[in-house]
Amino acid sequence: MNLRRTSNRASFEAQREAMVERQIRRRGIGDPIVLAAMAEVPRHLFVPPARRKFAYSDRALGLGPHSTISQPYIVARMTAALDLAGLRETSAAGGEVRVLEIGTGSGYQSAVLAACGCRVFSIEREAGISNQAAANLEEAGYAASVELRIGDGSLGWPEESPFDAILVTAGAQELPPALLAQLAATGVLVAPLGPPSAQVIRRGQFEKGELLWQNLEEVRFVPLRSGGGFGDSSER
Ligand code: SAH
Known about the structure:
Layout: H1 3-25, H2 32-40, E1 61-64, E2 67-69, H3 72-81, H4 84-90, E3 98-102, H5 108-115, E4 119-124, H6 127-140, E5 146-150, E6 163-168, H7 177-180, E7 183-193, E8 199-207, E9 210-219
Parallel strand pairs: 3-4, 3-6, 4-5, 6-7
Antiparallel strand pairs: 1-2, 7-8, 8-9
Helix pairs in contact: 1-2, 2-3, 2-5
The structure holds S-adenosyl-L-homocysteine.
S-adenosyl-L-homocysteine binds at residues 66-70, 102-103, 105-106, 108-109, 123-126, 129, 152-154, 169-170, 222, 224-226.
């Protein structure tokens, strides 16, 4: 490896440390599992090369016409909302937490979940985006913990259900009903829901068989799009 590449990597590491401190810890996220994962995952490998210098900036970045890599703080906030330490206690698979993600995008959120020790199943509707995510996950070293599927995430992944957690990373008016049926009785669901002008990250968890909702934070995600041709990355 030449000197330039080595110093680039060191600079990305320094930027990542600053990101965790300023954008995440100082904004109140203290979950050690999440902080360690955000400090570990090389976010720049999930950002298109032309935008890599902004990889650790406090913002979302575009990947394509309908896809973004979410702002680091939002990734941390949603991951922390899953309460992974709690889910490890209740998981049926002996401490392994199985997470369904809707909207693979860059694969970054999947990598953060993998770095938290989760087994990840992630669905993306656009083939080109999903294939790039597969390459990103491979390069960053998380491919073994993540399974990707191309299709309509609002239908979930019934063959692999139930999931300890379901994380939706595209905005919908309401939660697609199929997803709820695939959540374990002790599971947690986190999704940006509501009209585009008033979207809120909501956290749902069953209590005595009833789903209780909590509002976490206002956000603006790219829309969850259902219907139409799936797997076509050239669609409008
Ligand atoms: N979690 C991603 C960000 C996702 S952006 C990351 O960490 O980078 C939202 C993604 O959801 C987009 O890539 C979009 O193509 C995808 N998407 C939209 N509707 C979908 C659907 N019905 N099923 C699966 N993916 C969908």
